[in-house]
Structure formats: C-alpha cells, structure tokens
Amino acid sequence: xxxxxxxxxxxxxxxxxxxxxxxxxxxxxxxxxxxxxxxxxxxxxxxxxxxxxxxxxxxxxxxxxxxxxxxxxxxxxxxxxxxxxxxxxxxxxxxxxxxxxxxxxxxxxxxxxxxxxxxxxxxxxxxxxxxxxxxxxxxxxxxxxxx
Length: 147
Ligand code: SF4
Hints:
The protein is mainly alpha-helical. Helix content is about 40%, strand content about 0%. The two termini are about 20 Å apart. The model has no long low-confidence stretch (mean pLDDT about 95). Bound molecules: iron/sulfur cluster. Iron/sulfur cluster binds next to loops.
C-alpha cells in the first residue's frame, strides 16, 4: 500500500466527509450540522465553496480533517461512483461503509512502516477492499486490534 493511498483525494471523492459526520458548533466548525446532512458550503459539484478560506470562516476542523483515503476508495471501489444524493438509503449505506474503511485506513496509517506489523497492514488492506456486504460482517474492533 502506498502512503498516498492513505491520504484524502477530494478530487476523486463525492464530498463524503462534508456530509456523513455530525459537527457541533465549536471553535473548529462555525455552525452545527447533523449526521448525514450536507454541509451548507458543499456545492453541487461536491466541492467546498469556501475551500480557500476555511480557517478565516471558522472551519479549521475541516482543514485538520483526514479521511485517510477512505473517501475515494469507498466512492469508487465499493460504490462504483454512486452518490449519496441518489436516495436516503444509499446515503446511509455509503456513510456506514465510509466510517468502516476510514477506521481501517486510519489504523494502517498508524502502523505502516513498522516491521512488526507488516502482516497486519496486509490484512487490513485486504479488508479495506472487501465489498459492502463483506465489510458489514467484520468486527472492526477485533480487526484493527494490535494487542
Ligand atoms: S466547510 Fe467545506 S470542507 Fe468543511 S464540511 Fe463544509 S463543504 Fe466540507
């Protein structure tokens, strides 16, 4: 797995992180939005309309956020370009798988490069390519455990 596979590639994603997670109003996010609600600044083109101005507008949380490459993988691999705008059920399924793959990728990014965890990285990478149905059967805590 390349390190670049563990970094967000927003050009190849459909804005999943701007819709899926809830945000509380805070110093890092200027207004509150609920889970699955598209951010008011997300454009029809799935791009952030204030991207160049995030910190100034009170969205430093977005600057810091990293999906660890889960967004582009789920968009293209598991969902073949299907958008969360399709319908409510598709959105729910997509966001659920996004969080599972993000957790797998985040764990890989923590242990990649450590010889001790070489096999674990391969296993987590294999899991991250599973289909939606297969991903729903895994125990994510057990899968990402290195104890
Ligand atoms: S402010 Fe921009 S980057 Fe942050 S959630 Fe909204 S659309 Fe996404």
